[in-house]
Specification:
single chain; alpha+beta; three-stranded antiparallel sheet; elongated; four-stranded antiparallel sheet; 147 residues
Length: 147
Protein backbone atom coordinates (compact mmCIF):
# COMPACT_ATOMS: atom_id res chain seq x y z
CA UNK A 1 0.00 0.00 0.00
CA UNK A 2 1.82 3.15 -1.18
CA UNK A 3 1.62 6.37 0.77
CA UNK A 4 2.82 9.92 0.17
CA UNK A 5 4.77 12.18 2.53
CA UNK A 6 4.65 15.92 1.90
CA UNK A 7 7.15 18.50 3.08
CA UNK A 8 5.49 20.81 5.67
CA UNK A 9 5.47 24.60 5.38
CA UNK A 10 7.53 24.76 8.59
CA UNK A 11 10.48 23.34 6.65
CA UNK A 12 10.38 26.31 4.28
CA UNK A 13 10.35 28.73 7.22
CA UNK A 14 13.25 26.86 8.81
CA UNK A 15 15.39 27.08 5.66
CA UNK A 16 14.47 30.73 5.15
CA UNK A 17 15.61 31.45 8.71
CA UNK A 18 18.88 29.55 8.25
CA UNK A 19 19.72 31.35 5.02
CA UNK A 20 18.73 34.71 6.50
CA UNK A 21 21.31 34.23 9.26
CA UNK A 22 24.03 33.38 6.73
CA UNK A 23 23.15 36.32 4.47
CA UNK A 24 23.05 38.69 7.45
CA UNK A 25 26.59 37.76 8.44
CA UNK A 26 27.89 38.06 4.86
CA UNK A 27 26.11 41.40 4.35
CA UNK A 28 27.45 42.75 7.66
CA UNK A 29 31.00 41.85 6.68
CA UNK A 30 30.50 43.41 3.27
CA UNK A 31 29.12 46.65 4.75
CA UNK A 32 32.02 46.77 7.21
CA UNK A 33 34.53 46.32 4.39
CA UNK A 34 32.81 49.03 2.32
CA UNK A 35 34.36 51.59 4.68
CA UNK A 36 37.78 50.39 3.49
CA UNK A 37 36.99 49.73 -0.19
CA UNK A 38 34.04 51.50 -1.75
CA UNK A 39 33.36 48.75 -4.28
CA UNK A 40 32.13 46.52 -1.43
CA UNK A 41 28.89 48.58 -1.57
CA UNK A 42 28.25 47.07 -5.01
CA UNK A 43 28.94 43.63 -3.53
CA UNK A 44 26.46 44.36 -0.71
CA UNK A 45 23.78 45.30 -3.25
CA UNK A 46 24.39 42.08 -5.18
CA UNK A 47 24.21 40.09 -1.93
CA UNK A 48 20.87 41.70 -1.06
CA UNK A 49 19.42 40.90 -4.49
CA UNK A 50 20.61 37.30 -4.21
CA UNK A 51 19.16 37.09 -0.72
CA UNK A 52 15.67 38.14 -1.76
CA UNK A 53 15.67 35.86 -4.80
CA UNK A 54 16.98 32.87 -2.86
CA UNK A 55 14.94 33.19 0.32
CA UNK A 56 11.60 34.31 -1.09
CA UNK A 57 11.53 32.53 -4.46
CA UNK A 58 13.98 29.66 -4.80
CA UNK A 59 13.75 28.07 -1.33
CA UNK A 60 9.93 27.87 -1.15
CA UNK A 61 9.66 26.48 -4.68
CA UNK A 62 12.51 24.01 -4.23
CA UNK A 63 11.51 22.64 -0.82
CA UNK A 64 7.81 22.35 -1.62
CA UNK A 65 8.58 20.58 -4.91
CA UNK A 66 9.58 17.41 -3.00
CA UNK A 67 7.08 14.57 -3.40
CA UNK A 68 7.98 11.44 -1.45
CA UNK A 69 6.10 8.26 -2.32
CA UNK A 70 6.69 5.04 -0.44
CA UNK A 71 5.57 1.79 -2.06
CA UNK A 72 6.09 -1.83 -1.08
CA UNK A 73 9.33 -2.10 -3.09
CA UNK A 74 10.91 1.35 -3.17
CA UNK A 75 10.95 4.97 -2.09
CA UNK A 76 10.40 7.42 -4.94
CA UNK A 77 11.44 11.05 -4.46
CA UNK A 78 10.51 13.63 -7.08
CA UNK A 79 11.86 17.15 -6.75
CA UNK A 80 12.61 20.29 -8.69
CA UNK A 81 10.68 23.10 -10.27
CA UNK A 82 13.09 24.11 -13.06
CA UNK A 83 15.01 20.87 -13.43
CA UNK A 84 12.89 17.94 -12.35
CA UNK A 85 14.61 14.86 -11.00
CA UNK A 86 13.26 11.56 -9.77
CA UNK A 87 15.12 9.24 -7.42
CA UNK A 88 14.02 5.65 -6.95
CA UNK A 89 15.63 3.80 -4.06
CA UNK A 90 14.65 0.13 -3.90
CA UNK A 91 14.52 -1.39 -0.43
CA UNK A 92 16.81 -4.24 -1.49
CA UNK A 93 19.63 -1.73 -2.22
CA UNK A 94 19.14 0.23 0.99
CA UNK A 95 21.75 -0.39 3.68
CA UNK A 96 20.26 1.75 6.45
CA UNK A 97 18.29 4.90 7.15
CA UNK A 98 19.04 7.50 9.77
CA UNK A 99 17.24 10.59 10.96
CA UNK A 100 18.68 13.86 12.17
CA UNK A 101 17.26 16.93 13.79
CA UNK A 102 18.99 20.18 14.60
CA UNK A 103 17.97 22.53 17.44
CA UNK A 104 15.59 24.66 15.37
CA UNK A 105 14.21 21.53 13.71
CA UNK A 106 13.39 20.04 17.08
CA UNK A 107 11.54 23.20 18.07
CA UNK A 108 9.23 22.75 15.06
CA UNK A 109 9.09 18.93 15.57
CA UNK A 110 10.84 18.21 12.27
CA UNK A 111 13.39 15.54 11.36
CA UNK A 112 15.44 15.01 8.24
CA UNK A 113 16.28 11.59 6.83
CA UNK A 114 19.40 10.17 5.25
CA UNK A 115 18.93 6.98 3.25
CA UNK A 116 22.15 5.04 2.66
CA UNK A 117 22.24 2.71 -0.33
CA UNK A 118 24.89 0.47 -1.80
CA UNK A 119 26.17 3.20 -4.14
CA UNK A 120 25.29 6.45 -2.47
CA UNK A 121 23.09 8.40 -0.12
CA UNK A 122 19.81 10.22 -0.48
CA UNK A 123 18.94 13.12 1.82
CA UNK A 124 15.32 14.01 2.51
CA UNK A 125 14.82 17.49 3.98
CA UNK A 126 13.00 17.95 7.25
CA UNK A 127 9.58 16.33 7.49
CA UNK A 128 7.34 15.95 10.53
CA UNK A 129 9.04 13.85 13.19
CA UNK A 130 6.05 11.50 13.31
CA UNK A 131 6.27 10.95 9.54
CA UNK A 132 10.01 10.31 9.82
CA UNK A 133 9.45 7.71 12.54
CA UNK A 134 6.72 6.02 10.47
CA UNK A 135 8.96 6.00 7.40
CA UNK A 136 11.93 4.52 9.27
CA UNK A 137 9.63 1.92 10.84
CA UNK A 138 8.25 1.07 7.41
CA UNK A 139 11.77 0.75 6.00
CA UNK A 140 12.79 -1.53 8.88
CA UNK A 141 9.71 -3.69 8.43
CA UNK A 142 10.19 -3.88 4.69
CA UNK A 143 13.89 -4.66 5.06
CA UNK A 144 13.10 -7.64 7.28
CA UNK A 145 10.75 -8.98 4.58
CA UNK A 146 13.61 -9.13 2.06
CA UNK A 147 16.02 -11.02 4.36
Amino acid sequence: MPFVINIPQKTVLLWQFRLSLIFAVVAAVSVYLSYIYLWFLILTAIICILYFFTVFFFIPHHILSYKITVSEKAIVIKRGFLIKTEYIMPFVRMIYASSYSLPFSRKYKLSGLVLHAARGILIIPEIKSDDAAVLIGYIEGNYEKHD
